[in-house]
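The data are quoted verbatim for reference:
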Amino acid sequence: MSAATVGLLAGMALGFAAFFGGFWAFLLVAFLGLVGLLAGRMLQGDLDLSDFTRSRDRK
């Protein structure tokens, strides 16, 4: 599935949430979409949490 298709589906989901559920439903769908994206990236191996937890003082 291409990035454009995924973007289209995400936009449609957010649009339906905003139309039928209002602003808070829109925010909830956007937040859960972000959580799903991060989980998918972690499972795929593209994202490692140690990148965010590593100390900056280390050389």
Summary: The mean pLDDT is 84. Helices lie at 3-21, 23-44, 50-53. Residues 40 and 46 are 9 Å apart (CA to CA).
